[in-house]
Amino acid sequence: MAKRKQKQPTYEEKGVRYMMCTCGSYVSVDETAVDVKCSHCVTMIMMNKYPHEEPKSYKPTGRPAGWHFMKEFVDKDGNVFHKGKEQPKLFGTLPSTKVQPKKKTKRRTKEQILIARHKKKKMALKKAKKLSKRKLKNKLIDEEKSNGVKR
What we know:
151 residues; 6 strands
């Protein structure tokens, strides 16, 4: 195999070989290198060959979110869909589906959360107190029955 002829000028410094790129900057290379391109030149070549294209953006269809999960959906044009699949035989036979938007729940503030937690604990204490009173009353009734005392 014949050796390829070296194109760019080179120099060696401290045992490292440097070769000049077409733009004029020097790049460290191996002993067998014949030609070199720096990272800047490679980037320029790639940008010329493959220019930056904007990705395809979302285009709304006018249908509500989750329409393809509905058992039956009819859009404004009269197209009928069953579980997201179009039924061309039923075109224009049904009235368009009216979708009501979900009501948004308001987020509770920290204060409201604390108040709700306090009420919950209060109710639990009330129930526990009521239950203990009932147990005490039943215990007294059982003692009276065992002693033979009538009320």
